[in-house]
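Lab notebook page, bench 4
Experiment: in silico fold of construct C2
Operator: M.H.
Input chain length: 247 residues
Purpose: comparison with the prior construct
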Amino acid sequence: MTGMRRSKPRYAELGDLLQAAIEKGEYPVGTLLPTELELCERFEVSRHTARAALAQLIAAGLVQRRPGAGTRVIAQSAAMRYEHEVDTVDTLMQYGNTTRLKIVETGRVLADAATAQRLEIREGKEYLRLRGLRLEEPARLAVAVTEMLVPVRTGVPVAKLLDAASTARTVASFLDPARLSRVEQVFDAASFDADDARLLEIRRSEPAMRVQRRYRDASGRLLMLATSLHPPGRFAYSMVLSRNHRQ
């Protein structure tokens, strides 16, 4: 690769090279990869580059590192997952454009005290409950089960949201970034109940990454509360934080 214009950082090239070797069986599951120092000598890279390349393999679920025990291969192929990077509301909404929402249940519900507080409405007021799967395109891998709660107010397209044939399209237009003032996100850990596990074809009580999003309009009013549960190995969420605003 010397003398060629690189399209990737050197660590990514090395990471890809090592991943290809693992997938070909050159480093079988259970064996150790070369040490950082050995990688530095063999590929003429810095210690930092070697460390970053190994970190790429760890993130792919191919290897595991333990202090004093080396880097051991734990899988021959990378875990399938959907990775989404976000730094603005607009890029957040691209998640909806690059995945497909498959609706499995819709309904009208009267809010109890707890739900009314979450949706910032009065107890007994009606809201819509929409439930579905987020599928990665084009593989159609289910990356999340999602529940969407929508307070029923003037201007909410109730009939279209309740029609499973049009729900996905209506959600996309209802949450048009042009009408949003902000999206509030909370990440925490949870587990799957029996119904959600069945939809995702995983074991009950599997750990989950839970993402709760509150979508607000220009006046700050809550449009939707969406809660997504992601199973292990199928989704990654990344963001870049900087001190300065982008020019």
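Observations: Residues 1-5, 82-86 have pLDDT under 50 and may be disordered. The radius of gyration is 22 Å.
Next step: discuss at group meeting.
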